[in-house]
Each structure stands twice: as structure tokens, then as C-alpha cells.
Write the C-alpha cells for this entry.
Amino acid sequence: MKNFEVVIGLEVHVHLLTQSKAFCGCSTKFGLPPNSATCPVCLGLPGVLPVLNEKAFLYAVKTALALNCQIQDVIKFDRKNYYYPDLPKNFQISQYEMPLAHNGYVDIEHSGREKKIRINRVHLEEDAGKLMHDEKRGLSYLDLNRTGIPLLEIVSEPDLRSAEETSTYLQNIKSILLYLKVSDCNMEEGSLRCDANISVRPKGENALGVKAELKNMNSFKAVRDALSYEGRRQIDLRKKGEKIAQETRLWDEAKAMTAPMRTKEETHDYRYFPEPDLAPFTIERVEIEKIKSALPELPQVKKKRFISKYKVSEYDANALTRDRAVSDFFEETIRIVDKPKEIVNWLLGDVAAILNERKIPIEKAPFKPAHLASILRLIQSEEITGKIAKEVLQGVFDTGSQPEAIVDKKGLKQIKDAGELSGIIEGVLTENKKSVEDYKKGKKNAITFMVGQVMKKTKGKANPQKVNEILRKKLGSQI
Amino acid sequence: MKQRIDKKTVRHVARLSRISLSGKEVALYQKQLADILDYINQLNKADTTGTPPTSHPLESLKNVFREDRVRKSLPAEKALQNAPERKDDFFSVPKIIE
Ligand SMILES: [Zn+2]
């Protein structure tokens, strides 16, 4: 039996983070009341003139450069003509012949191997409106607020070979966009979307198989699930000697399967032609170089630097650099207290858990690098125990106060004074005669129970090593 | 050179524009479209050696931008005033399966 491989190309659509739409001054804000952010331009009323948003153009150029693309000498817009209720003008302003940029790539690391995923093109277009279907009444309700929001389309070459690899690629694109601050990449709100072209072929063959276009994947999980399902489906068909139909298929999250889209079989004929209302755009080489040199350090580069400079593991480096704000937090903390290992453990452990629980991004948290640095110093100087440190961390999140102040106010300072501990331990020993007996009879783990009792009495503030030491001494002398 | 355009093409173009045509109209537009194409084709006779292709009539015009600033939009009531059907503040349209 032949071995098959899956071949995937991804089209990523992303909302650019501008205040106003691509060609008019309507707001791009998510969640406004229906049809409250439209105007004659984005409604496609007669006689209006679209004018390109400079920031959208700049963000598009930035992204294309970060994706290692070549910016074209002359950039123009075209009309893509089709009829659909979400498109009031009956055409979408897009780019066909002379898109913004070509020939880029993104590096991805997958199962320890590095791989270049080529990018065919990056172009700028406008989004369409949003339809909500009323299945019962056979109607759709249309909100045109989204119409005209600047959308960047990033088209990869068919270089992806698995669902997991595709997910990694998408994650990398997302990280890059977040680093550039050109999009919020919120998949739930539809500001990051993707469609995939997927086909299968016998391993070793160069020609591409018949592809299906896969839509309606609205989360990273959906991307992985839909592509693995579709890959398996096509391979099963091929193994049975059946043909693959060239069609568009939708991922059905509930049924966990893909199904062909019900549509009249008519090949798309978009009759592209140059958008006469928009003059062409050019950008000087020096300007491009200037933008390029002002790009921030990108996730892949930063990841490698973290591994070599701070000796963090590849896994941790990945987790740290996925979000620019987390990586900045990490480095700012290191600048105050040079303990990369401890910082990674806190950031990716307890801090990440609290952020997750409270559903806030790290940059909006009251917890700052100086706070983490203080906590680490308090642990190092043995003023607080590791256990108490977690309580202090919660306190900073709750109040925004300095860790030292929380320790003072709540009296959380570690008890390491031998005299004070001795007194507490004496108490525990008299109250737990049975455990002392057990210990003497040879049940050595009875001591763990007694340490626990001391901790309970001191609310976790006792220095555990000291407690152990004193306990052993006292129990020994009692034997 | 006389431009030919067949009935099938006329019907296809009409379908793409969501226009329904009677048989008589198809014949009428077949002739009219052929005439228009003939007219346009005269341009092909012009000598364009050394003339770079252009996509816009105003050659000196380029890089026309607007600042990224939010301006007042139409109130929903105005945006919806031409809607044949509406449901609350939504346009209501027949459901199209896709
Ligand atoms: Zn508008």
C-alpha cells in the first residue's frame, strides 16, 4: 500500500488595528450596535469616493516586511465582482494583479526541525458585512458595520505537511502580528480567520492532488481538527481508489467532520478590473528600508536569543516569546534581578495561572516586573517561604501593593528564630503524643505530620528546614 | 475585424449580474455588446510600443491617503432607510446557502 502525504496551503485573513475603516472614516470597533458604523462610502451608495487609510497601508507594509516579502514597485487595487448580501457595493476592493507584496517566508519549528514556509503574496482588501441566519424563517439579517474594515490576506505556498505544522505556522503568523501591534488577532471576534487548501498525494510524487478548500475553522483547535479529519478522509478515499472532488468544504465543529458546501456549481468569475477610484501607490526604497530597520525583534529571533543568552529551554523560550508582553516582562524582571530560571518558573507557572483565571493579559495586570523581582528577593533573603510567596503574589494581584508591604501588613515574615520555633514545636509535641510514640516505635514518617502541624500553627511561615532540624533534635533527645 | 459574441456568453454575463433576459433581449444585447467590443477594439490598433501600461488616467496622481481618524457615521435609521425589508436594526435578506 502506498504512503500518502498531506499538502496544505493556508490563506490567513487578519483585521488591521486601525481606528477607522480602510476607505472611509467609520469606526472599526467591535460590538457596536448593528448598522451604526456605516456611511455612503462603505454602503456603496452612488457617487462616493474611497480614500485609502494611510495607517492601514503602513501596517500592511510592516507586516509584509516582517514576513520577509518583497514590496512591489507599483501597488494598485482592483474590484473583485460578485453578488452576495454581505457585499453592498457588489464588488470588494481587493488586489489582484499588482498586490502589495510577494515572495516571503516564515520560519517554523516543528518536532525539533526548522522549516521555511514560503509566502506567495500579501495583499490588502476590505472586509464584508456580517450575516446572521434565521434558519426557521429562511432569512438572513445583515449588519454592515464590518464592511470596509481593512483586511490583510496572507497566502502561503502549499508547503505545510500536517495539521500540527499548519497550526504552528498560524501561531507564528499570529505572534508576528502581535509583535508588530498591527492586529489584535482575536479569533473569537473574527479579526484572525483562515481558509485552507488541502490535498493528498503519494509520498515522493511532485504533482499536487485535487484539492479541497476548507472553511469555517474558527479556532486553533478547529484548524487542527478540521485538517487532520480532512487529510484522513482524502487518504482513505485514495486508498480505496476513489476520486477526490474539487470542492469547498465546511468544518462542522459539532459533528467533528467536514462536509461539502451546498452551493450552485458555478465556477467563480470575479471579472477583476482596476479600481478606477483609487490611484496607484508606490513606496520609495529608502522608506522601505526605514520601516524595515524599525521593525521590532521578531518572535523567532527573540526565542533563539533567549535560549543562548538566558539558557532557558526551547519549550520555555517558545512559551515566553509567543506573546511580546510576556517576553518584555521576562526581560524587564531580569534587569532588576538576574535570576532567569526562577523568573521563567514564576511567569509560566503561578503568574500564568492567575492571569488565565482572571482572564487578563499580562500588560493589563497590576502585577509588574518590579513586583516579581521583590518576591524573588524576599525568598532569597529567606524573609518569606516559597509557600508564602504564592500568597504574596495573589496579594499583589488583588491590591497592586508592594510585596514587602503585603508581608509587613499581613505579618507573613518567615519564622526562623530557633527560640521562637522551639516554643512552637514544644507545643506541637505535647499536643501530639501519639505521633511522638509512633516516631519512637520507628514510624519515621510521623515527623512529616508534625512538621505539617508546625506549619499549620504558623500559617506556613515557619522555615521548613529549621523546623525539621529542631524537631529531629528534640525527638532524638526524647528517645 | 468583426467581434463575435455568442448567446451563451450574453446569458453568462447576465447571470453574473443577476439579470434575467428574454430571448429577444439576448439577441438585442448580443448585437449591442458586439458593437461595444468592436468600438473598444479600435484601441488595439493604436501603436503602443514604448508606452508603459497604466491603470489610472491621471498619471501624476499617486499615494492619495487619508489620515486614520474616525468620523461620524450615519445613524442606523438613515443607513436602513432604503432597505426593502428590515428586522430591528438589521437589513433582512433572503437566506442564501453558502
Ligand atoms: Zn463608512
In short: The CA atoms of residues 5 and 34 of chain B lie 6 Å apart.
